[in-house]
Amino acid sequence: MPTVTFKNLKNKKIVVPEGSNLRREAHKNGIPMHSGVHQYLNCHGNGMCGSCRVIVKSGSEHLKRKTWWEKILLLLNPMWLFARIGHEQDMTLACQTRVNGDCEIESTPPMNWSGEEFWV
Protein backbone atom coordinates (compact mmCIF):
# COMPACT_ATOMS: atom_id res chain seq x y z
CA MET A 1 0.00 0.00 0.00
CA PRO A 2 1.27 3.49 -0.85
CA THR A 3 2.77 5.79 1.77
CA VAL A 4 2.08 9.53 1.69
CA THR A 5 4.62 11.70 3.52
CA PHE A 6 3.62 15.22 4.56
CA LYS A 7 6.89 17.20 4.46
CA ASN A 8 5.63 20.29 6.26
CA LEU A 9 4.20 18.25 9.14
CA LYS A 10 7.49 16.83 10.42
CA ASN A 11 7.46 14.12 7.74
CA LYS A 12 4.25 12.56 9.06
CA LYS A 13 3.49 9.41 7.08
CA ILE A 14 0.18 7.73 6.39
CA VAL A 15 -0.42 4.46 4.58
CA VAL A 16 -3.36 4.61 2.18
CA PRO A 17 -5.12 2.10 -0.07
CA GLU A 18 -4.03 2.28 -3.70
CA GLY A 19 -6.34 4.54 -5.74
CA SER A 20 -7.64 6.37 -2.67
CA ASN A 21 -8.51 10.06 -2.53
CA LEU A 22 -5.72 12.15 -0.95
CA ARG A 23 -8.02 14.66 0.78
CA ARG A 24 -10.28 11.98 2.25
CA GLU A 25 -7.38 9.89 3.57
CA ALA A 26 -5.67 12.95 5.06
CA HIS A 27 -8.85 13.94 6.92
CA LYS A 28 -9.26 10.37 8.22
CA ASN A 29 -5.77 10.61 9.70
CA GLY A 30 -6.25 14.07 11.25
CA ILE A 31 -4.08 15.94 8.76
CA PRO A 32 -5.29 19.49 8.04
CA MET A 33 -5.92 20.12 4.34
CA HIS A 34 -7.47 23.58 4.72
CA SER A 35 -6.20 26.69 6.45
CA GLY A 36 -7.94 29.69 7.95
CA VAL A 37 -11.63 30.14 7.23
CA HIS A 38 -11.49 27.36 4.64
CA GLN A 39 -11.50 24.83 7.47
CA TYR A 40 -15.23 25.58 7.67
CA LEU A 41 -16.03 27.10 4.28
CA ASN A 42 -14.95 24.71 1.55
CA CYS A 43 -16.57 22.63 -1.18
CA HIS A 44 -16.14 19.34 0.78
CA GLY A 45 -14.13 17.66 -1.94
CA ASN A 46 -16.11 18.66 -5.02
CA GLY A 47 -13.20 20.42 -6.74
CA MET A 48 -14.85 23.84 -6.72
CA CYS A 49 -13.02 26.01 -4.18
CA GLY A 50 -9.33 25.13 -4.53
CA SER A 51 -8.68 25.41 -0.79
CA CYS A 52 -7.26 21.87 -0.49
CA ARG A 53 -4.31 22.73 -2.72
CA VAL A 54 -1.10 20.81 -2.08
CA ILE A 55 2.39 20.88 -3.53
CA VAL A 56 3.76 17.55 -4.72
CA LYS A 57 7.42 17.39 -3.64
CA SER A 58 8.12 13.97 -5.14
CA GLY A 59 6.26 11.00 -6.53
CA SER A 60 4.02 12.91 -8.93
CA GLU A 61 4.20 9.95 -11.30
CA HIS A 62 2.24 7.97 -8.69
CA LEU A 63 -0.65 10.44 -8.61
CA LYS A 64 -3.54 10.82 -11.00
CA ARG A 65 -2.91 13.49 -13.64
CA LYS A 66 -4.61 16.87 -13.24
CA THR A 67 -8.02 17.19 -14.85
CA TRP A 68 -8.79 20.11 -17.17
CA TRP A 69 -11.15 21.49 -14.50
CA GLU A 70 -8.40 21.45 -11.90
CA LYS A 71 -5.99 23.23 -14.24
CA ILE A 72 -8.56 25.94 -15.01
CA LEU A 73 -9.48 26.41 -11.34
CA LEU A 74 -5.86 26.80 -10.24
CA LEU A 75 -5.11 29.12 -13.16
CA LEU A 76 -8.12 31.44 -13.15
CA ASN A 77 -9.07 31.68 -9.49
CA PRO A 78 -7.58 35.03 -8.41
CA MET A 79 -7.17 33.90 -4.81
CA TRP A 80 -5.04 30.88 -5.68
CA LEU A 81 -2.94 32.73 -8.26
CA PHE A 82 -0.57 33.83 -5.50
CA ALA A 83 -0.29 30.28 -4.19
CA ARG A 84 0.61 28.99 -7.67
CA ILE A 85 3.52 31.36 -8.27
CA GLY A 86 6.63 29.22 -8.45
CA HIS A 87 4.60 25.99 -8.24
CA GLU A 88 2.81 25.94 -11.57
CA GLN A 89 3.67 22.32 -12.36
CA ASP A 90 3.62 20.71 -8.92
CA MET A 91 0.49 22.22 -7.32
CA THR A 92 -2.65 20.10 -7.36
CA LEU A 93 -5.95 19.76 -5.50
CA ALA A 94 -6.03 17.03 -2.85
CA CYS A 95 -9.73 16.38 -3.46
CA GLN A 96 -9.05 15.54 -7.11
CA THR A 97 -5.92 13.45 -6.48
CA ARG A 98 -5.82 9.66 -6.41
CA VAL A 99 -2.77 8.03 -4.81
CA ASN A 100 -1.31 5.05 -6.67
CA GLY A 101 2.17 4.96 -5.10
CA ASP A 102 4.52 6.59 -2.60
CA CYS A 103 4.68 10.39 -2.69
CA GLU A 104 5.75 13.42 -0.65
CA ILE A 105 3.28 16.27 -0.19
CA GLU A 106 3.27 19.75 1.34
CA SER A 107 -0.24 20.50 2.57
CA THR A 108 -1.71 23.99 2.97
CA PRO A 109 1.18 25.80 1.23
CA PRO A 110 1.52 29.50 2.06
CA MET A 111 0.48 32.28 -0.30
CA ASN A 112 3.23 34.16 -2.13
CA TRP A 113 1.92 37.65 -1.23
CA SER A 114 5.32 39.30 -1.61
CA GLY A 115 5.72 38.07 -5.19
CA GLU A 116 9.23 36.73 -4.60
CA GLU A 117 9.00 34.42 -7.60
CA PHE A 118 6.51 36.53 -9.56
CA TRP A 119 9.05 37.94 -12.01
CA VAL A 120 11.23 34.84 -12.31
Automatic annotation (TrEMBL):
<dbReference type="Pfam" id="PF00111">
    <property type="entry name" value="Fer2"/>
</dbReference>
<dbReference type="InterPro" id="IPR036010">
    <property type="entry name" value="2Fe-2S_ferredoxin-like_sf"/>
</dbReference>
<dbReference type="GO" id="GO:0051536">
    <property type="term" value="F:iron-sulfur cluster binding"/>
</dbReference>
<dbReference type="InterPro" id="IPR012675">
    <property type="entry name" value="Beta-grasp_dom_sf"/>
</dbReference>
<dbReference type="InterPro" id="IPR001041">
    <property type="entry name" value="2Fe-2S_ferredoxin-type"/>
</dbReference>
<protein>
    <submittedName>
        <fullName>2Fe-2S ferredoxin-5</fullName>
    </submittedName>
</protein>
<feature type="domain" description="2Fe-2S ferredoxin-type">
    <location>
        <begin position="2"/>
        <end position="111"/>
    </location>
</feature>
